[in-house]
Design a protein that fits this description.
306 residues, alpha/beta, Rossmann fold, 11-stranded mixed β-sheet, two-stranded antiparallel sheet, globular
Amino acid sequence: MRFLGLFVSSMLLSTLAACGSDAGASGDAEETGTAGDTSSGDGDGDGDGDGDGDGDPAGTAGCGAALSAGASNLSVSANGDSRDYIRVVPAGYDPDTPYPVVFAWHGQGGDGALARAYYGVEESANDAAIFIYPDGLPQATVGGDTGWDLGPTGDAALFDALLTQISDDACVDLNRIFSTGHSFGGFISNALACYRGDEIRAIGEVAGGPSYWPCGSNIEVAAWLAHDPTDAVVPFATGVEARDQHLARNGCSNTTTSVSPAPCVSYDGCAAGLPVVWCEHGDGGGSGHNWPGFAGSAIWDFFAAQ
């Protein structure tokens, strides 16, 4: 399933163009929860949340508690709004094993169910991670279509609330929090790398763009990005700008090495543990903006290697 749309946001620093998907439906039964802010750290510098400095998988509050496998339609409070999302717990879930968590953000006009239908990252993970598919709210900047508030006090708060809730409900490896998305979902993945770079381990995005606001400190985020040069929705140059932000932050050189799948390349000289992979592809369809067939498995492989 491949979709396109248009995102235009005029804020202080820039006008953005993005897209995503059209239409989609979530499921039925809903469970409500609330969560707070997870902007705190443990102070030991290893990012695992346990304060011991050893970098081992964190044992979050949800470890040891039973949790039903499969997809659940839930909600969480963020910035005063009740926000819907789909949580997918892997088959054979072990409550004593910390799991990676993948946040998957939809494109303009879409919802979490639609992102889940075509991204393919979950299928490639083969029950090795918990997946979170949030629903965006109507955004005035895109004519009331669903999407994301990309500012530093916008849907970064939704990420915080979701991370708190999943950490309370499930056994989570806080060293391995990932974000993926298409177009508008790519924009917010890059924005979260900027604002929450001390919590997100890696991002994988297609046809997205950069963050246009000041970033936080201690950003250590590996990045996988894909863009079709013929993209008629989010210009190729916008994707290049996002790539270049990661290259600069991760200390990469301007030389590359070919990696799988073709035509992807990995930049040389990046800081240890902070690779940047760039896929300049021609699989974007007539608009140049489609989700390429190789993306789902390639993004998961990239996450799994971190």
